[in-house]
Design a protein that fits this description.
The chain is α/β, with parallel strands linked by helices. The chain has a single domain (4-244), classed as Aldolase class I (TIM Barrel, Alpha-Beta Barrel). The protein has eleven helices and eight strands. It has helices spanning 15-28, 45-52, 78-83, 94-99, 104-116, 129-133, 137-148, 178-195, 198-203, 217-222, 236-244; strands at 4-8, 35-39, 57-61, 88-91, 120-125, 160-164, 205-209, 226-229. Helix 1 (15-28) runs parallel beside helix 11 (236-244) and helix 7 (137-148) crosses helix 8. It starts with a strand and ends with a helix. 43% of the residues are buried. Bound molecules: 2-phosphoglycolic acid. 2-phosphoglycolic acid is lined by residues 8, 165, 170-171, 209-212, 228-232.
Length: 247
């Protein structure tokens, strides 16, 4: 089955290093049946455009500002990344939420801006360890979904991928159990049905993220529509193996 494999570089590598990465990944994934997306830093998007256009690998940004343009020194807009050929943007990542204090309200605005500019959104949700230990993970993620999807129409969901990323699993080496991944993904699907329709719930792509590696990806991919990979995507050989696999 075709899966969606997304790489999130976070704030790693230099644009000059990304040229080799992009060329290698493009070559190694030319026969893949999966959908492959890499999200390097903004500074690398020009390189991505040059070396990934025409390949199987799509690319995206890791953030955008919620405003269309204007006096926002240091920020980058949806139309700017779209103009460089990006097709995706990651929004609501737990590092943006915790380190840059992004609220569900801000993320909701960003989702609307991204969709209005023709970008597909990888929308991250997930609970922290205390919430999980208190057995409140489902209720917490449900509320996140309700808030970040407010005002998003059902037809726009075709451009939204949900990434279930438990915060305690992101960059920690700790992975959620397959049982938890499956139950959280089915809960998310159920909530999409509540918010939209059974059809929308069936169609939506839901990936898992959080310490996915070359060692553990097989079982995880089998339980989701794909994976969002941080640290482990930096090794292009490993990432290409995950992208090329038959699921
Ligand atoms: P990780 O990061 O794979 O390094 O845990 C996941 C992510 O940032 O989405």
């Amino acid at each position: 089955m075709k899966k969606l494999i997304i790489g999130n570089f976070k704030m790693n590598t230099k644009p000059s290093e990304f040229k080799h990465y992009a060329m290698t990944l493009a070559t190694k994934t030319k026969d893949t049946k999966n959908d492959v997306v890499v999200c390097p830093p903004f500074t690398h998007l020009y390189v991505a455009k040059e070396f990934l256009t025409g390949s199987k690998v799509e690319f995206g940004a890791q953030n955008i500002n919620e405003n269309e343009s204007g006096a926002y020194t240091g920020e980058v807009s949806a139309s700017m990344v779209k103009d460089l050929g990006a097709s995706y943007v990651i929004l609501g990542h737990s590092e943006r939420r915790s380190k840059f204090k992004e609220s569900d309200r801000t993320i909701n605005k960003k989702v609307k801006t991204a969709l209005a500019n023709g970008l597909k959104v990888v929308l991250c949700v997930g609970e922290n360890l205390v919430t999980r230990t208190n057995k409140e993970a489902s209720a917490f993620v449900k509320k996140q979904l309700d808030d970040v999807l407010k005002g998003i129409y059902e037809n726009e969901l075709d451009s939204v991928v949900i990434a279930y990323e438990p915060i305690w699993a992101v960059g920690t080496g700790k992975v959620a159990t397959i049982k938890d991944i499956q139950s959280m993904i089915s809960m998310i699907r159920k909530e999409i049905e509540n918010l939209y329709s059974a059809k929308a719930s069936e169609k939506i792509t839901i990936v898992y993220g959080g310490s996915v590696t070359i060692q553990n990806y097989k079982k995880i991919v089998a339980s989701a529509d794909g994976v969002l990979i941080g640290g482990a995507c930096l090794n292009v050989d490993d990432f290409a193996i995950i992208c090329r696999d038959n699921y």
